[in-house]
Amino acid sequence: MAEVKLFGRWNSPYSHRVEMALKLKGVEYEYIEEDLRNKSPLLLKYNPIHKKVPVLLHNSKPIAESSVIIEYIDETWEGPSILPQDPYERAMARFWVKFIDEKCTVAMWKACSSPGEEGEKAKEEAAQLLKFVEEEIKGKKFFGGDNIGLVDFAANFIGYWFGILQEIEGLELLTKEKYPNLCEWIDGYINDSFIKDNLPDKDKMTQVFKAYAQAGYKPKI
Ligand SMILES: N[C@@H](CCC(=O)N[C@@H](CS)C(=O)NCC(=O)O)C(=O)O
Known about the structure:
Layout: E1 4-8, H1 13-25, E2 30-33, H2 41-46, E3 55-58, E4 61-64, H3 66-76, H4 87-113, H5 116-137, H6 150-154, H7 156-169, H8 180-191, H9 193-196, H10 202-215
Parallel strand pairs: 1-2
Antiparallel strand pairs: 1-3, 3-4
Helix pairs in contact: 1-3, 4-5, 4-7, 5-8
Catalytic activity: RX + glutathione = an S-substituted glutathione + a halide anion + H(+)
Domain GST N-terminal: 2-81
Family: Belongs to the GST superfamily. HSP26 family.
């Protein structure tokens, strides 16, 4: 039988994306929990460039970077498609993942974790960037159409993690009044039976992220 191992972290949105993709395809895998403040020699060996989770090991071959891993999973295993079939739609899905990763998540994370002027600027930037996402999801159940797909997985930080962080920080950045379509997607995404059963526990996440903030620890995302 093929060997599939996932090096991850329970509260990492990136690890979570990959876990969802493996579960959607029904792939059996061994999960290895990493301590990101004391990374294992194997994680450093398999992801020497970024030194981050997730890393997927398939028959001893490592793959890093969550969206690259998800595309690999989609191409390797049968089951529901994660990327669209149409080349233009595939390109658009990749565009949105890049936008979410490189722009939205960065600004949203800074908005919650950076003090002073940097934090204030990030809040304004995140608010502007989210307007594009709000427009993109308008009239759709999921970013992938009727079914959950690559962009939905990639937007999990917006869908779940950010709500917890903004509650901790007392922010009102992403609200139903400001982003009704996006909040409708969030509701549908986190309450989808497949997703819901696999989300990390909210209370545990709240405790851990509060403890990080108190200790001045800023996880690198
Ligand atoms: N671009 C990467 C981001 C992965 C990432 O940021 N992982 C974080 C956990 S959420 C990590 O491993 N950080 C390492 C550290 O904190 O040193 C991906 O999509 O896989």
